[in-house]
Every structure is written in structure tokens, then in C-alpha cells.
Amino acid sequence: MFVDRIKVFAQAGSGGRGSVSFRREKFVPKGGPDGGDGGRGGNVVLRVERHVDNLANLFYEPIIKAKDGGHGKGKKMAGRAGANKIVKVPVGTIVWHADKEKRSTPNSQLPTPNSDQSAIGSAQSAMDLIIDLVRDGEEFVLCRGGAGGKGNVHFKSSRNRAPRQYTDGEEGEQGYFLLELRTIADAGLVGYPNAGKSTLLRKLSAARPKVAAYPFTTLHPVVGVMELPGYRHATIADIPGLIEGAHRGVGLGHEFLRHITRCPILIFVIDVAGSEGRSPVEDLQNLRKEIDLYDPMLSSRPWLIVANKMDLPNANENLEALQEKFSKVRTVSISAANGEGIDTLKKALAERMTGDQDISSPINGGQAENL
Questions:
Q1: Helix, strand, or coil (residue 130)
Q2: Block means of pLDDT (10 residues each) for the chain, length 371 residues?
Q3: CA 214, CA 237: separation in Å to the nearest integer?
Q4: d(CA 200, CA 239)
């Protein structure tokens, strides 16, 4: 099961109650108060783990709770601190508020949306975002545990030598949160269903996405690693097929489009033979339109045209029309099924990819004419 977006309820542990106790020991008259403090509650911590590729673990545990702190005891013994709840999430996880009301937290002073759609819609603002986890090993305290209560030893004075006052522990932070995974890769394969994206990824890397002769074979992003000269590597994501109107939610819509928002380079895989009965030029125009309508920033990123299925009839004629229409963008003709042109494509990608770009920063730049 592949889960890339889920709403969860997180609750940190509450602090333990302070103790009311007095020292009672032989030969020690009027020993005085010795009630200990309560232990702090456990935190809910998100930890980025590169070996986790989706949010399926939270599908079976949508309610996340940390342990409460222990109560204080006599002899000034503090209660045991509650254990933190560590939740492993994949690299590229974004956390949004999903509460109806603002949640007080020291980690963020951001307003909350009124519904999940305000957090996942195309008009997301930076004020809705809690954290964007993009580094392996990074940790973030989602909900902080409550402080422990004070025992009666803190209330003694010259006028109150036998205090019976104590305080309860504070409640831990809690709230509803929306966790969304956006695949991190150096390049993304974009195209219509059955354009040959999965077959191409098999040729470029050791990844083995499902390949079949029907549309929407790929139902979730698959990331492969391509070796580059100089002991470098680059990651390539196979994005499930797009169709016209995807920016409005037609088909699977945002389920697919949001996974290309982190890719610095977009590779448009086109069925240049028109085996599905469509025009390759119109296919590319529609894909570029969908990308621009979903996020105008995506259309300004460097991109490359991969003319696939050159081994089929009518491919050469359609290739000439495609190159004439998009003359300023480099077009690489290949046949992914036969392995033709794969080396040329690898060289073209190696010229653009370094594998060390900081994906957490916005990517600027226009259309790559020499790519």
C-alpha cells in the first residue's frame, strides 16, 4: 500500500501530578514536606528516515499518543518522564495544520485552515505550513509534552510548615495534522499514460516499476537512481500519467501533479509515433498547459523532450513536426523498449544534473534552450 497523504491526530503526554508527602523517619521529628515533582510528558517527534518511502505506517496508526509523565513520590522523588513517541516519515514530508482552531505551540505561530482542502488546495499559503522535512535524520517536535506538577515541598514557608498544596501536571499539546509526501528527485518523468515512462526508468536505473499495455499502470511515484560520471548519481521519479484537466482534479489530478513540484528538471516523455491516436505536438502542448495551470513556477523550470517509440511507424514524420514546433528545446529521440538512444539521453541528463542541489530552496530559472 502506498500512502502519500493522511490526516492524523497527535497528542503529547501530560505531565505527572506533584506529590503531597512528609518525611517520617525514626528520630527525625517534624521532618517537613518532601513531596516530589511530577515527570514531564513525552513529546510527539517526527523523524525523517530515508529508508521510509511513504506514510503507510500512519494509515494503521492515525492516532499518535506519547506517554504521560509519572506522578511525584515521597523523599523528593520526581516522577518518571514520559517516553517520546517517535514517528518515522519519508524525506519530503510536509506537515500542515488541520485544526479548526489555532493550536498553541512553541514550534510555530501559524494560523490553521478551516478544512483539509485549504491545506492541500492550489492556493496554499506559507502561513498554513508547519514544517517541510527534507533532510535525512531531521527531527521536529510536533507536539510538546506538558510540564510536571510541583510537589508540596515547593510550598513550604516559615508560616506554612506543613503544606498540603500541590499542582497537577500540564496537559500535552494536541491537534489534527495533515501529512503530505512530495517526492524528492532530481528529475521527473512527465507524460500521458502509456507514453513509456516506466519502461524508460527501467533503462535508466535499476528500478523496476510495473509495465503493462494499459493506461495508469503506475499508480504511485517510483524513484530510480541513475549513475553519472565521476561517482555521482541522480534520482529520477516516474510520475503517473497525466491527462487533460488534471489541474482541476480530472482523473487523479493533484494525486500526481504535486509529486513534480520538487523536481528541478522536467522530462516530457512523448509518444512520438501517436500509437494512442493522439498528436504528439498536441500532447506536449497539453502537458505544458496542465503544468502551467497547476503551478506557473513549474513551467519556468528547465525541461527536456524525450521522443519515445521511434521504432514504430510514422515516428520520423511526427518527430520533425515536434522539433519544428519546439525548436528551442532539445529533443532526444529514443526507443525505450529496444534501448535505442538511451546513452544519448544519459549524456544529456548528466550535463544538467549534479545530484547535490538544495531542494529546500526555490528553484529559479527559465526555459533551457541548450538542454
A1: strand
A2: 87 96 88 94 95 90 95 94 95 85 39 35 54 93 96 93 94 94 87 87 86 71 84 84 62 66 90 86 89 85 91 88 89 90 88 52 34 31
A3: 20
A4: 12
Single pTM value for the model:
0.74
Question: Of the candidates 64, 233, 77, 242, which has an alpha carbon nearest to the alpha carbon of residue 153?
Answer: 77
Say which amino acid occupies 179.
L
d(CA 122, CA 130): 17
Question: CA-based Rg of the chain, rounded to a whole angstrom?
Answer: 28
CA distances to 206, 267, 335 from 200, rounded to whole Å, are 11, 11, 9
- pLDDT for the residue 246: 56
| Alpha-carbon span 40 to 94, nearest angstrom | 28
- What's the count of helices (H) and strands (E) in the chain, helices before strands? 8, 14
Q: Write phi, then psi, for 139 (nearest 5 degrees).
A: -125, 145
Which 3-state string (H, E, C) describes 177-219? EEEEECCCCCEEEECCCCCCHHHHHHHHCCCCCCCCCCCCCCC
Residue 205 CA to residue 99 CA, distance in Å, equals: 42
Helices (H), the chain: 56-59, 116-120, 197-204, 254-257, 280-294, 296-299, 315-325, 342-352
Pseudo-torsion of CA 283, 289, 294, 300, nearest 10°?
Answer: 110
Residue bearing cell 506554612 = 160
- The per-residue pLDDT for 112 is 34
Distance CA 371, CA 98 (A): 41
